[in-house]
Design brief:
The complex is a heterodimer of chains A (about 220) and B (about 230).
Chain A: H1 5-13, E1 21-24, H2 28-31, E2 43-46, E3 50-54, E4 75-82, H3 85-93, E5 99-102, E6 106-108, E7 113-114, E8 117-118, E9 122-123, H4 129-135, E10 139-142, E11 154-155, E12 170-172, E13 176-180, E14 186-191, H5 197-203, E15 208-209
Parallel strand pairs in A: 1-2, 1-5, 5-10, 6-11, 10-12, 14-15
Antiparallel strand pairs in A: 2-3, 3-4, 6-7, 8-9, 12-13, 13-14
Chain B: H1 9-12, E1 21-24, H2 34-43, E2 48-51, H3 63-67, E3 71-76, H4 83-90, E4 95-98, H5 101-113, E5 117-120, E6 134-137, E7 140-146, E8 150-161, E9 166-167, H6 176-181, E10 183-194, E11 213-216
Parallel strand pairs in B: 1-2, 1-8, 2-3, 3-4, 8-10, 10-11
Antiparallel strand pairs in B: 5-7, 6-7, 8-9
Classes of the chains: A alpha/beta (about 220), B alpha/beta (about 230).
């Protein structure tokens, strides 16, 4: 069984380390906040200007002046702080945020990422993604292994306009966890419960490096 | 204290002419100067270059100016929520310059701070870096981004005093402080306007020196773009 979106988020949550500041992108990354392991304290940064972001508000308690970067209404936890956009990206560019989790349309075997534009089809803009991937030390991509047409999103080279070069360190998909090696290539670290190495090889177009033993994820 | 109070959005926007470059604060619909946007619709100025993180939605925020074809060019980081915007962009009626959000914020801040340009890693190796000077610092390539300035910067704050000191609320702060610094003339619309001395100087976010005109907005609709809630019995 491959993972659903919550399964991907749950696996990424295992990467969290106590004391980290974390920026979660829109989509699957947002779900990571629902799966923080017990005993781990992390603070979520949203680039529109909050540290210490809490869950969605109760019905009737939403505040138009309190949203996340996905423009969703949110709450602020005790100890939260607000700041302007230039300070927010000082945190990001200055590498004060320890982990960035974001979605992608394509990732290449040398760590390039494309997630902001499909020429002629979708031109919404990069938002904060280019700043995030250019500066973060630790970038995990959360995405489905293949697109809606069943084609691999893990490629030798991205075909779409890039968001950043040489920056992704780890990819967690519905099928597998892979590390991107400094010399290039997706090193298969774990497979999703019930998913075979053959299935992962078949679904991956970029260079996949497979050891003899590939453990199954423990969720 | 210098008194910067004006009585209305229309009075505050006096001097804004067709062809000018404007900065407008806000993130999505959060913290946008909605009273001044209404005034600009009424003034029918056009050929505007608008620097704003987003472009509003079809019937609110900058979407209102787009609908009247008052905008010639948008400089933004994300414009995904507006059908009319997409239509004008794809048909070539509207010029669009998309730039990374952090670079946009810093280009405004730099403009106000007298820094003509700066190097950032954001966008290196992408379309954004094309044609820009590249330099390596600490072994990492960076691209040169230039400061932005505006004929008028229009911001929205929660509270302000007649000297132009501003306090923002929640995440409605966003682009407002860096843009307030970068206007040749900066207009602030506030929900609550008080006399000098009534704001605690320790709590002011934007010092009044950056603001030339201030008024109490007549009405703040504060529309929510993505109302996301959980139910109490959850």
């Amino acid at each position: 069984m491959s993972l659903d979106k919550n399964g991907i988020a749950k696996r990424i949550a295992q990467e969290l380390i106590d004391g980290w500041y974390v920026n979660l992108g829109i989509g699957i990354p947002t779900l990571v906040a629902n799966h923080i392991p017990k005993g781990i304290n992390v603070e979520f940064q949203s680039e529109n200007g909050i540290l210490g972001m809490g869950p969605f508000p109760f019905d009737g308690e939403e505040d138009a002046d309190l949203i996340n970067a996905g423009k969703q209404t949110i709450t602020a936890l005790p100890g939260a702080v607000y700041f302007d956009s230039s300070t927010s990206f000082s945190m990001i560019r200055g590498q004060h945020v320890q982990l960035t989790v974001l979605g992608a349309m394509e990732v290449s075997e040398n760590g390039d990422i494309a997630n902001w534009k499909i020429p002629g089809k979708m031109v919404k803009g990069m938002g904060g993604a280019m700043d995030l991937v250019a500066s973060a030390d630790n970038i995990i991509v959360a995405m489905m292994h293949t697109n809606k047409a069943g084609e691999s999103k893990l490629l030798e080279q991205c075909s779409l306009p890039l968001t950043g070069v040489n920056c992704v360190k780890k990819v967690v998909t519905n099928l597998a966890v892979m590390e991107i090696l400094p010399e290039g290539g997706f090193k298969l670290i774990e497979r999703a419960p019930g998913v075979s190495v053959e299935q992962i090889i078949k679904a991956t177009r970029g260079k996949l490096i497979v050891d003899a033993e590939v453990p199954e994820m423990v969720l | 204290m210098i008194n910067k109070e004006v009585k209305s959005a229309l009075e505050a926007c006096q001097g804004i002419k067709s062809g000018m470059t404007l900065m407008l604060g806000g993130f999505g619909l959060c913290g946008i100067p909605e009273n001044c946007i209404s005034a600009l619709v009424e003034m029918k100025v056009n050929d505007l270059t608008c620097i704003s993180n987003n472009a509003g939605v079809d019937d609110f925020g900058l979407g209102l100016l787009l609908k009247q074809r008052q905008i010639k060019k948008m400089i933004s980081s994300y414009v995904g929520e507006n059908d009319e915007f997409e239509r004008q962009m794809l048909s070539g009626e509207l010029e669009v310059d998309l730039i990374p959000q952090g670079s946009l914020a810093e280009r405004c801040r730099a403009g106000g701070a007298g820094i003509p340009a700066f190097f950032t890693p954001a966008g290196y190796g992408t379309e954004v870096g094309e044609g820009k000077e590249v330099r390596e610092f600490n072994g990492k390539p960076h691209i040169l981004e230039q400061a932005l300035l505006a004929d008028f910067a229009i911001v929205k704050a929660w509270k302000g005093d007649t000297a132009g000191n501003l306090i923002y609320k929640g995440t409605a702060r966003n682009f407002n402080p860096p843009m307030a610094m970068a206007g040749k003339i900066t207009i602030a619309e506030v929900e609550e306007l008080v006399q000098p001395g009534e704001l605690d100087p320790n709590h002011v976010h934007t010092p009044g020196i950056f603001v030339q005109r201030i008024f109490k907005g007549q009405k703040f609709e504060k529309r929510i773009e993505q109302r996301t809630v959980i139910t109490k019995d959850h």
